[in-house]
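Problem 3 from the worked examples.
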Amino acid sequence: MDDAADAPSLGGGRHRRPRADRGAARRSGGRRHSRGARRPCDQAARRRLERGLDELGRGRSAGEHLVGLGHRRIGIVDAGPGTLYNAARVDGFRSALTNAGLDLPTSRIVHGDWSRDAAGEAVLPVLAGADRPTALFACSESMAFGIYDAAASLGLRIPQDLSVVGFDDLPEAQWATPPMTTVQQPTAEMGSVALRILLDLIRDRRAPRGRPRGVTRIELATHFVVRGSTAPPEA
């Protein structure tokens, strides 16, 4: 019995693939991992990095700021499902409202898909409603600028009619009209965190089987920058 199988060669002819390769393919269900596929270690790195940035605390700080100003009808513009850090920001924000005895109804949760245009379009009906929120937190500044656009189109003043909190503290935030209150992303420190987590992963992969693997937990300080886009709600 032949120990190989026909397979295409680079030259257009056939070459023989060892039976061991065919057995491995059968055991894996015939699936192959492409070079661009996300490997388990990549997913682990992403989860560790997202946890280490304490997105929960950053989202909570935005909620606490708005609650502290006296807002009671508060909403959020997030990116929608799909990223752990977006979900963590929403959960942290919600926890601040819950601790203050406030709800975050689904009618005040808007999905902006990380886009200024998408956020502005999605938030329009919420701001046009009779029971509109007096304050909104956006999980990125691009989406916060979408809120600015929607408010302007409806004749709502920021912060007199609507307080807005962004996330990132990009240079554009301080140039906005009015300058945007925001949760600052420590981008330089994030690079250091990413490198440390990568080194931890390399160490874990080299560790002998059975040895407990460490879990990286790095929390960066939260800096909340108060500017002109937030104020107590008007009576």
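Problem 4, a separate protein:
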Amino acid sequence: MPRKVRIVERKLKRQRAVGRVFLDEGIIEIEQRQKPREWLSTLVHEALHVAFPGMEEKSIAAAERKIADILWRASVRRIHQ
């Protein structure tokens, strides 16, 4: 996996997903039409897949909810540039 991970926002609804990760390419794709809190949660979820590729989905989802909630309550938000 590449050292840097690139985040790409695009419409993913046809893939029936809000996020995907391509480990070999170092790419995280995120559905661009999500609400801010959902977007943050999706980013955390896909980042966990990158950091812990062997982790079970159930564990990823549990960690995602906890981390995304902590970040949201700490006022972490995405800033469009």
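Solution to problem 4. The two ends are 27 Å apart (CA to CA). The chain has a mean pLDDT of 93.
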